[in-house]
Design a protein that fits this description.
Blueprint lengths: L9 E7 L7 H12 L3 E7 L5 H10 L2 E6 L13 E2 L1 H6 L4 E5 L2 E5 L2 H11 L8 E5 L3 H12 L5 E5 L3 H11 L4 E4 L3 H8 L4 E4 L26 E4 L8 H8 L3 E3 L2 H16 L5 H15 L1
Parallel strand pairs: 1-2, 1-3, 4-6, 7-8, 7-10, 8-9, 10-11, 11-12
Antiparallel strand pairs: 3-5, 5-6
Helix pairs in contact: 1-9, 1-10, 4-5, 4-9
């Protein structure tokens, strides 16, 4: 990818530990080039527990902002001068804008998830959603489904039920319900779900974990969709099994792209037509493998 660097070019980056595997530079630089913006997006490893020092370096170096992945999203929260509603709700920041000596923290994960579902034609309003897992990804997805997606009911199933209970108690208005993760419970809950969202790392490239059984997918009603927030591999075994049973399957790439679109809007202060840049981004991602 060719990037033109001028004296006026504003610097952006993604931080994480680890982070060199991130696809964010490809996504952001493709959008920047497509839109003709005078920005450059880099990848910056930042060690766990050093966000305060990184912020001082970023401000000194004149960064316009940055994205944050694990493990920095929670650590950044108290270091911000202002937080948007989603960052406060999740207790996590994935987008930081440095402007006029101030630090503005945002979280675009939930919006990105809903936008990806909308692009795929998956409705959430008035529906029952089964969320698998109660970790960081679930904390972004489940409350947003209730808040902006207006799901009728969001069931959070987790092996440690206490974590699911804590998530539902912290963010729910009675529509978020905790549940166990055993096969009998999953099968019963799947029969009620219009959408299943995997927020665990089961089936992710580089991890040893996998679902004990995919039998709960047999209980899904006709027309139900399955979304796996994992995007490496592009088709997890969960998605393959769902498609074998005739269900629409979506991976996490759409969420990754859309949260980046919303982050770039914060960086630039301009509205971006996500649909217009998506073909270029998808082509760039396909080219890099």
């Amino acid at each position: 990818m060719q990037v033109e660097l001028k004296n006026t070019t504003k610097k952006l980056c993604v931080i994480g530990d680890p982070v060199l595997h991130s696809k964010s530079p490809v996504i952001q630089n493709t959008m920047i080039r497509t839109l003709g913006l005078d920005y450059l997006y880099l990848c910056q490893p930042v060690a766990r527990g050093t966000c305060r020092e990184w912020l001082e370096c970023a401000e000194f170096a004149g960064y316009a902002g940055f994205n944050a992945t694990m493990p920095h999203k929670q650590e950044l929260v108290p270091l911000m001068d202002a937080l948007d509603e989603d960052a406060r709700m999740y207790g996590a920041v994935n987008t930081v804008v440095l402007r006029d000596g101030k630090r503005y923290g945002y979280n675009t994960d939930g919006r990105g998830f809903l936008a990806a579902l909308g692009q795929a034609g998956v409705a959430t309003e008035g529906r029952t959603v089964l969320v698998l897992g109660a970790g960081g990804a679930a904390k972004a997805v489940a409350p947003k489904l209730c808040q902006a997606g207006r799901a009728e009911r969001v069931i959070v199933a987790n092996r440690t039920v206490e974590k699911a209970e804590a998530l539902c108690a912290a963010h729910g208005d009675g529509r978020m319900v905790p549940a166990a993760f055993d096969q009998e419970t999953l099968s019963r809950l799947a029969s009620e779900a219009d959408l299943v969202v995997n927020c665990t790392n089961l089936g992710m490239t580089g991890t040893a974990g996998q679902f004990e059984s995919f039998g709960f997918l047999d209980a899904l009603k006709d027309g139900a969709a399955v979304c796996d927030l994992i995007y490496a591999p592009a088709e997890t075994e969960l998605l393959r099994q769902a498609r074998l049973r005739g269900h629409l399957g979506l991976n996490g790439l759409g969420m990754l792209i859309w949260q980046a679109v919303f982050a770039l809007e914060h960086f630039t202060g301009e509205s971006i037509d996500g649909g217009a840049v998506l073909p270029a981004v998808e082509a760039a991602l396909a080219a890099c493998g």
